[in-house]
Amino acid sequence: MAKDTGHVVGIDIGTSKVATVIGKVAEDGAVEVTGIGKVESRGMRKGIIASLDEAAACVKASVEEAESMAGHSVERAYVSVGGTHVRGFNSRGVVAITSKERMITRDDITRVLEGARTISFPQDQQIFHTFPQEYLVDDQDGISHPEGMPGSRLEANVHIITGSSTSLQNLGTVVNRFGIEVAQPVLNLMADAHAVLTADEKEIGVALINVGHETTGIAVFEKGALWHTHVIPIGGAHFTNDLAVGLRTGIADAEILKKKHGCALTALVQEEDTVEVPAMAGKRTAVVERMRLAEILQPRAEELFQLLYEDIRDARLEKTINAGVVLTGGGASLSGLDEVAQGVFDHQARVGEPAGVRGLTNLVAAPLFATAVGLVLYGAQLEAREGGSRKRGGLFGRLWRGIREIV
Ligand SMILES: Nc1ncnc2c1ncn2[C@@H]1O[C@H](COP(=O)(O)OP(=O)(O)OP(=O)(O)O)[C@@H](O)[C@H]1O
Ligand SMILES: [Mg+2]
Fold first, then answer.
1. How far apart (Å, rounded) are the C-alpha atoms in residues 65 and 35?
2. pLDDT exceeds 80 at position 215
3. SS3 of 214, please?
4. Protein residues whose CB sits closer than 6 Å to any atom of ligand 1
5. Of all protein residues, whose CA lies closest to atom 9 belonging to ligand 1?
6. What mean pLDDT do residues 108-137 have?
7. What percent of the chain lies above the pLDDT cut of 90?
């Protein structure tokens, strides 16, 4: 294989499915999807691992599926992190530039980012991302690459992501169990951003919302940086539960009905449409108006987006999302959900399907693959940059590795 080309692997360990994507990275940086694995999750609750053995078995099955499609084994992977244990907050670091030349070096940048990380947070949490937002050199703000600039004071605004230490360790344990090394744990929303957002959206302001199985996460990007992250404990499973209760049917049947006939907006449903609802034990199958499903699902969708809207309003970011809202995660496939988001946020909303890859694109063209595809794109970009910095000089390359982030 030619130098600087290789495979990048993403494993998205979600509450409802474990998705693996293998991408082959070409010389020009393009990513071709060569392997995909998707198995139903067991042993996960709200984005965290509840049973190591069950989760490990699912990871194994998902990776093996992708390996057999790609025709080679996986040794290293970028692994998603999501769930309500994840927290995001902004911080700032300041350092003096003391070198004789008063020229900002990579070392200064590493120091200022390290400084921004020295903050207090709960003991059971650990930092797994430090995303730079902007640098300030002697009070001049809005600088993205301060290296080589003259100055005596360097400041960095950053968005820090922490997660439960136990959860992060458990993710490592289940992946390592099969001899796979974790290249980096990556916030699922950041992976999604790499798969579904355009550079323009990230620049002019966008809210990315991942509707997962038991949780939904929101991330706000503007000026090419991440400013806000929040996760709430409501996801696709709650829509299913509402249907099961409202239609008096089982969870598994409600899940099928939701995917096949569900709609989050009554206005989109034809009055005369009907669906068959399997009954609970001992009762007969019922014929129900499809409108009834929408009447159950719409309030849940409105509540979900209302909570997310209030969250970004509390963070005073509701006016920054000029490019609107982009939905990912399996839950985003619910018909009409984008229109409900549009109504609540009063901004355009679209469903984000993974883009930016070649190869088996038709197999990953669904919002539930955004995280796994995004992990591959994130990893490929990170490795291209690190390959570049290693070529430029060994020491710089190693120093730079301290903060491994790509927004
Ligand atoms: N066509 C569809 N219509 C409605 N909902 C759907 C559809 N397809 C998938 N879903 C829902 O998407 C949810 C799963 O989404 P996803 O695969 O993104 O979750 P996950 O990554 O496993 O979970 P999490 O990120 O919360 O840990 C399920 O609740 C499922 O019912
Ligand atoms: Mg997910």
1. 8
2. yes
3. coil
4. 14-17, 41, 47, 82, 212-215, 235-237, 240, 255, 258-259, 262, 329-331, 333-334, 368
5. 330
6. 95
7. 86
- 402/38 Cα distance (integer angstroms): 33
Q: What does the block give as tokens for 291?
A: 């409108």
Nearest CA among 86, 79, 82, 85 for reference residue 172: 79
184 pLDDT exceeds 80? yes
Give me the pLDDT at residue 2, please.
35
Distance 371 CA to ligand 2 centre (A): 7
Q: What is the mean pLDDT of residues 237-258?
A: 97
Tell me, in angstroms, the distance from the centre of ligand 2 to residue 112's CA: 32
Give the phi and the psi of residue 204 in degrees, each rounded to 5: -90, -5
Q: Alpha helix locations (H) across 346-369?
A: 361-364
Which tokens is 53 given?
């053995």
Strand blocks (E) in 188-251: 206-211, 216-222, 225-232
Supply the pLDDT for residue 386. Answer: 79
Tally the residues of the chain. 407
| Domains of the chain (ranges, CATH numbers) | 87-162 (3.30.1490.110), 236-295 (3.30.420.40)
- 325 and 349 Cβ atoms separated by less than 8 Å: yes
